[in-house]
Amino acid sequence: MTTETVPRIKSTSSIAAKWLSIAAWAILLGTASGLACVAVRLTFRLLQWIFTQHTGTAPFVATMLSPARRIITPMEGAALVIFITWLARRLMSNPSYEGYVEAVRLNGGRIPFVSTAWRTLASAFSVAAGASIGREGSMIQFAAAVVSWVGARAPIRTLSLSRQVAFGVAAAVSAVYQAPIAGVFFASEIVLGEWAWENALPLLLASTSGWFVSRMLLDAGPLFPVARTLHFTLDFLWVFPLAVLFGLIGPVYQKLLHYSRAASRIPLALLWGALLTGLLSLIEPRVLGNGDAALTNVLRNDMTLFSVSSLLALRIVATTVCVGTGTVGGVFTPTLFSGAALGLAMGYLFHCQEPLLFAVCGIGLLMAAATHAPLMAAAMAMELTGQWHLVALILPCTLVASFVARTISRASLYGIASPEPSGEYSHDYQQAEAPARQA
After folding, report:
1. Domain boundaries along the sequence of the chain
2. What is the per-residue pLDDT across 383-399, written as a single tens digit (0 to 9) for each?
3. Are the beta carbons of 170 and 31 closer than 8 angstroms?
4. Cα atoms in the Cβ-side hemisphere of radius 13 Å centred on 46
5. Least confident of 88-97, 241-250, 338-347
6. Distances from the Cα of 261 to the Cαs of 93, 173, 315, 327, in angstroms?
7. What is the pTM of this model?
8. Is residue 360 within 8 Å of 381, Cβ to Cβ?
9. What is the spatial distance between Cα 355 and Cα 93, in angstroms, rounded to a whole number?
10. Does the domain formed by 5-217 have CATH 1.10.3080.10?
11. Is the CATH number 2.60.40.10 carried by domain 234-438?
């Protein structure tokens, strides 16, 4: 062995040791993120039982309640959210809030844990009371804050805190939706804003760890399985113009949610939003909750054109009202439902032999148009439904929908808050500020 070979061996060994340490740390962060998501989900279930003495999806619980309780319960949750927000501002010396996307892009991955915990508690009351809002936003945010806290004390100094938080977000998305591949692309396209091969393996390890923890302790995927394998017919050619249509709808959908926040200026806006949500639930119980039960109904294809259209309209109204009045939560699952419902309705309008194919494609198309993350959207549509054989159809269509949406508007649901006055703030960032303004 020559003297030149020894340094090479040492260099190779150090690189291997570095990669092994990063891989092991990614698994640990993914596990911590998955456990955080499980803890928040179980808290939601506990509070739901306290509110209603029932467990299950929000629409199912609503059918077990009297009409008066359907109206009162969301208002109770809203009142507690206002109180929790007020209390947090009084007890914290610096009640700042940092969304995980903004934290990774603008703040070096630093997420205040205490303020995030308070906000997660506020979200828990909204979700448990049946608000028409996604529960996944708070679960992912809390998991990211946990990973940020742990990562700041990491023994691996060569791994930036931003990357560690991205690992945690990948695991959280995977844990919430039982979608490990979508979790990797979510972290790459939305959180980091770029694809780098050096991040691929640790992201996948973290995402798989979060998926495994959630699978063992909660639900096993796919979460919204289609009962049969969908077959290609000549009708699938309609999906390509549908991708263009969804690309046009995506910016409109995003703007609707963005500008609805003007309603937060109304005195006690949360209570008024909860009242309207409760009243709408008297017409259609499936307006309550994040839309998982409604999405399941759509993918069972047991709805008529009128029923799916009316449910879509009512849920958009309810979700827009909740978002606009400052209800703490996300819009990811409501967007998944809207895409599936709109796709199924189009399938009926086109008199397709396989309208359910349009529903599955619609999940990815609207998500791609709204988030500008086509790879994540395609993976999410396939992992949620189990229809992996549709990849050759869904992936190019999500690329088209995302391209059309980007051409119309650079803003997305997860856009970065711009420091310029003319910049467009992200929905999540603005939503975080609304309850504080009301309190």
Report:
1. 5-217, 234-438
2. 999 888 889 999 999 99
3. no
4. 8
5. 88-97
6. 26, 25, 17, 10
7. 0.87
8. yes
9. 54
10. yes
11. no
